[in-house]
Amino acid sequence: MSYKLQKNNKHLSKIFDIISENIQDSVFKKLGLRFFVYMVSKKIIHVYSVKKKKNISAIVTVIDYKNYISMNEKMINYFFQHPIQLFVNLITVFSSMSKKSTIKIKTDYLHLLHLIIIKKNFSNISIERKDNILNNFYKKILNNHNAKVLFLCFDKKNKKAQNYYKRNNFAFLHKVKNLIYLKKDFYK
Predict the structure, then answer these.
(1) Can you tell me the distance from the alpha carbon of 31 to that of 27, in angstroms, rounded to the nearest whole number?
(2) Three-class SS of residue 51?
(3) 169 falls in which pLDDT band (50, 70, 90)?
(4) Beta 109-117 vs 149-155: how paired, if at all?
(5) Is the pTM of this model over 0.90?
(6) Fold for domain 3-149?
(7) Domain coordinates of the chain in residue numbers?
């Protein structure tokens, strides 16, 4: 059976748990399931899963240009509605808001917020085949959002991410402190 891409708008707790388990620095882990569900329900972030049979093999979350540009404003709106969460997570909120810096992106850019690959669910195929499967799904996701370029950031200490994106020909875009921004134009 082949891998399938699925957009997820409901039953987000399982996806939230996978993100929390695999990405320790995720703002969503620190701010909680309620914040994650809010961001998805307001279509600020979009959640996709790659499945084989009924098993999740990968999770991809993205933010389109419009929401990326106004992300800080949308976070502030959320915290006006939930002020206690702001006080409990003040440091996390400010560090997350500072990530955007002076990066220049275009309207056809789509921000890859999370990529979680569940290695055991790809163990019976080659790395090249896995990369091709994911690259084909990136194109479908880009098409869903009328975008051409996928961009992302990660901590420079994350060697797994560096190796994956280098192997898949992502190019340097920007650097802020310990964050590296990369991009890949899928329609060049």
Answers:
(1) 6
(2) strand
(3) very high
(4) parallel
(5) no
(6) Aminopeptidase (3.40.630)
(7) 3-149
